[in-house]
Amino acid sequence: MPREITLDSFHFADYVRSGDTVTWGQGCAEPLMLTETLIRQRSTIGHFSVFMGLSFSDTLNNTHLDDFDVISYGAMGTNANLGPKLQILPGNYSSIPRIMADRTLPIDVVLVQLSPRGPTGHYSLGFANDYLIPAMQSARLVIAEVNEQVPCTSLDQPLDESLLDMVIHCSATTVGGPSNTIGKTEKKIAGHLQEIIQDGAVIQYGIGSVPSAILSALSQHRGLGIYSGMLTEDVIPLIESGVITNETNRIRPGVTVGALAIGGEDMRHFLHLNKHVELHPATTTHAAKYLAQQDRLVAINSAIEVDLYGQVNAEVINNRYIGAVGGQIDFMHAASTQQSGLSIIAMPSTTRNGSHSRIVAKLSTSLVTTGKSDVDIVATELGIADLRGKTINQRMHALRSIAAPDFHDELDKFMHHALL
User: What percentage of the chain's residues is helix, strand, coil (to nearest 5)?
Assistant: First the structure.
């Protein structure tokens, strides 16, 4: 049984050693009482490292990062504010559980947020089941924050309580997810994709206004499934209205599957004791052997820019890291290689102020997130470029056709010299 503690007399310096790496649940799964206490006490520990994923809190943003290093697989959410202090660990999202399990990425201390015990007597991981279990299994110490306001979610298997060393009980508001504003541009993109996403598709999607708009536009579809790294509140009305039934989900028929859930009160209430939604580890949600079984997989992802060859940059702009490799390659490759699959990049044709095209002659960085061979469709508000079965010349013309007209001359000049 884990030892129960209170924060009043708890000193992280007694348990976290200089040189340790600490990790905690990402997004809404961050155990705020523990993480905020750790940061307040940081100067008493000695130099240590933090591995963190997607973040919506300000736990680190108001802190001088002199006492510890911060590592992440991307600069998502408030991580983007850390600038050069954030050390990026590139690689497919599917690799994170493995490198934690074998200590290629050694995790020494895990801070985890749990729900109170559910009807079966087990704690639940609440909002995230992504890479936490491998981290907990390989760590020296696991400290759990059992929060009365965390939903008791269905997991792929019950949480092994023997992994927990210490437990603190609390009732505190959880970290909320970001709000998305759906404008005319997003609705136009969604309208184009609505026509090519078929009934019965099993969908993976990301976070942001464009994915929200796309899901909203699918309200007249039937028999859809969700098998995604991330679940947002956008799926709730589609599940409740019967649009999402998961009847074609080959891994868990009838069940919506994700690794991470994001949202506020609506998501919390929706997830609580809901047996039709399960959170699985990334070793299931992102693994090639499972994705290969989803023969109607539609992967919908975003990008900062796409070049005329179809190469995707979803990570860097103006020499600043603001994105991630994440699960994009895992899902895009799986979808693009299936007979009935479809890999989609959906984005506005220009930056927010219209000053730069996002369909470009050459990527602004040497980093390529997703290679051209894994991209089936690129969609902007101006239409769809279907790259399947097209030569490089044909791809260039298709992508130019969905670029903003103000940038056609620039693209034409490149195409004149680059056509093969």
Answer: 30, 25, 50
